[in-house]
Amino acid sequence: MAMAVRPLRHMLVRFAALVTLLPLGLSALLGSLWLLPQAEQEIASYHRQLALTIAGQVDSFFKTSRVTAVSVAGVIDHDEHVATVQKAIATNLQLLKRLRAMYLVDAGGRVRAVGVNKMSAALQNDLLGLDLSRNELFQKAKSTGAEQWSDSFLSVVGGGLSVAVAVPTGTNVVIAEFDLAYLSEFLQQTTPVSDQVIMLIDRRGQVVADQAGTWTAQQLNLSNIPLIRDRLNSSKEVHGRLVLNGVEMVGSLHRIGTVDWWVLVARPTQTAYRQLWTSLGIMAVALSATTLAAFGVAMVLTRRMSQRFESLAEHAQLITRGGAATDWPHSNVAEFNALADSLQKMSGSLHERARLLEDEIAERQQVQEQLHEKALLLEQEVAERVLAEQSLQVKQTQLETLNLTLEDRVRQELAKNREKDAIMIQQGRLAAMGEMISNIAHQWRQPLNELAIMVQTLRLEYDDNLLNGERIDEFTDDCMNTIQHMSQTINTFRDFFKQNRAVQQFDLSTAITATANLLQASLQAAGISLKLDLQPGCLLQGQPNDFSQVVLNILNNARDALLTRAVPAPAVTVTTQQVQGMAQITVEDNGGGIAADIVDKIFDPYFTTKHKAQGTGLGLYISKKIIEENFNGTIEVESCSGGTRFRIVVPVKAPDLQQQNSA
After folding, report:
1. pLDDT at 95 over 70
2. In this structure, are residues 111 and 103 in contact, taking their beta carbons and an 8 Å threshold?
3. Which helix (H) or strand (E) holds 304?
4. 199 — phi, psi (to 5°)?
5. Angle at which helices 334-463 and 274-320 cross, to 10°
6. Which of these three, 256, 274, 292, is where a domain ends?
7. Is there a single domain that holds both residue 123 and residue 214?
8. CA 602, CA 605: separation in Å to the nearest integer?
9. Is residue 536 in a domain?
10. Helix (H, G, I), strand (E, B) or coil at 213
């Protein structure tokens, strides 16, 4: 591809522009990579320090507030008389204005003593005996035996947001309720600037206090803001951006340890970064002016340099047209003078080479005439070889025709064999489906009996007036569990016959266990013990349903043999192990083994020792084809110690299966 050619003047102008604009770009890069992160770090540090200070003050607010409940609990430890406790509660209400109400609750959840700020004694007496046993705060304090703080809530005795602390003492619990309006007043006093936003957020994301009181009055919940939602269940402080009331802000969250609340300190992004943008603007104006001045100087130097090169280029073009240039331009630049002298010497050398080239051309023309004569002789020889190749091509075409006919015959025979195999595999699947339906009938018989008993029991308890909500829930759970079990049986049956021919990786033990579960009820009904000794983590690559069909065929044969021969204590054992990259699956029963004269025939198609109504003779034949063709493995059978042992060996990884699937 030809290289793009540009005038020297344009290249020098671009180079000058690049050199002058590079400092401006580096300054912009410095601003974005260092100044901006530095400013963000300073803003985050300021917000973090302010949030930490406010969190400490609020934490002190709650710690001093809990002292009232602890003091009343201390009085109860020495004197449990209600009058004494009532007097202590009244004293605390007078001393601490933010204390809205205080209750003494006994072990049964009944209010024994109460005090409510700015409430008459008659109304307070109405609260005595109130049942708080279902109160979540009371239940937590009672069950843990430790001090508990509630979430924020609307007070029923004074209105407005409140928070409560429960302090257990002996068998009783002291509950103190505090007015959160004092926190908003405190935040208003500590706000350093007018556009600063300071909020207290509880564990649910609810705003419980802010410096203006407007967010609290709206009962705003901020749990939908990503910055706040991600930290409600965490103890780590965080700094980032958020949007409040349509205004983008930057702020920090700091945790209050006593009540597990959060302090949010935020400020509008535009205000927070105003000083940074002003500094960057001044810097940009200064850099732009400097860049324009440097670019002007570079343009003057570029114009002078390009004019000198253009003069040299004109003399060089004169030489290319056959002329002789003698007055090569010179200047006060040593490099230009050296270039002019070199070009003048090169011009003389070119004239000398042109003369030598003309002599060489004359010699080559003479050689070409000699080559032409030899070419005529070579063409005659080539024509003879072409005739010989054409004769050979005719014979090769005849041979290819014979080969094509042979391949068609082979393909036809292979197609017939595949069609027969497909029919036999389908017959085997239909037979397996019949076995599976019989197994499902065994598996459903017991759950259906259980459902019938549950329905009868439900009717009897209804007639005896023994039914209540709890008993109905128990019956419902039992019935749903039984129905879920039956539904799982249908799912397993459906997965077993799902037509999925894609090669995939599956767990060997999972496939065997799922197949065994389908036969479990049938085997138990026949009194046959099934033991699985499976090595976990062994992965095969292929079609799971095909492998499950192989295991199902072998287990069905073992079951039929054990039932036919009425073996005492019949048992079937399935074991797996992985050895040197190969998975070995062994299925062994104690059904007496296979006769020596038929052991070599059991994998033949349509060979069976059962009655025609009980077997097709295709199960083991299909199993052998699946293992050998789909899993690149082997399957063998032998009689051993009064039983039969099937051994399947397949590679854990079969790379050729991926190629087969893509083909």
Report:
1. yes
2. yes
3. helix 274-320
4. -135, 155
5. 130
6. 274
7. no
8. 8
9. yes
10. coil
The domain of 121 spans 79-179
Percent with pLDDT over 70 in the chain: 68
Q: Which of the residue ranges 43-47, 245-249, 375-379, 566-570 would you say has the lowest mean pLDDT?
A: 43-47
State how far the Cα of 451 lies from the Cα of 482, in Å rounded to an integer.
Answer: 7
Q: Report the alpha-carbon distance of residue 58 to residue 98 in Å, rounded.
A: 13
pLDDT at residue 655 tops 80: no
Residues 552 and 573 in one domain: yes
Q: How many CB atoms lie within 10 A of CB 378?
A: 10
Q: Give the Cα separation of 58 and 65 in Å (integer).
A: 10
Q: Do residues 519 and 635 share a domain?
A: yes
Cross-strand partners of 575: 533, 586
C-alpha–C-alpha distance, residues 94 and 115, integer Å: 10
Structure token pair of residue 587: 């299925």
Q: Could you report how far apart the first and last alpha carbons of the chain are, in Å?
A: 40
The helix-helix angle for 508-525 and 544-565 (nearest 10°) equals 30
Is there a domain that residue 624 lies in? yes
The answer for residues whose C-beta is within 8 angstroms of residue 378's C-beta and 6 or more apart is none
Output the CA–CA distances (angstroms, integers) from residue 441 to 17, 435, 438, 490, 616, in the order listed.
87, 10, 5, 11, 22
Longest distance between any two alpha carbons in the chain, whole Å: 140
* Same domain flag for 226 and 126: no
For residues 237 and 101, membership in a common domain is answered with: no
Both tokens of residue 413?
């025979």
Is residue 97 located within the same domain as residue 213?
Answer: no
CATH number at residue 535: 3.30.565.10
Alpha-carbon distances, residue 524 vs 442, 520, 521 (angstroms): 9, 6, 5
Q: Are residues 174 and 242 in the same domain?
A: no
pLDDT tens for 435-491 read 556 656 655 665 676 677 677 777 777 777 877 878 777 768 767 766 765 665 666
Alpha-carbon distance 518 to 516, whole Å? Answer: 5
Q: Which residues contact 414 (CB under 8 A, 6 or more apart)?
A: none
* DSSP string for residues in 530-584: EEEE--TT-EEEE-HHHHHHHHHHHHHHHHHHHHHHT-SS-EEEEEEEEETTEEE
Is the same domain home to 635 and 531? yes
Residues 6+ apart with CB under 8 A from 511: 540, 544, 547, 548, 551
For residues 253 and 241, give the distance between their C-alpha atoms in angstroms, rounded to a whole number: 11
Phi/psi for 592 (5° steps) reads 95, -5
Q: For residue 520, is pLDDT > 60?
A: yes
Is 553 buried (19+), middle (13-18) or exposed (0-12) by CB count in 10 A? buried
Domain boundary among the residues 254, 274, 294 is at 274
Q: What is the pLDDT of residue 504?
A: 86
Q: What is the mean pLDDT of the chain?
A: 76
pLDDT score for 658: 44
pLDDT at 50 over 60: yes
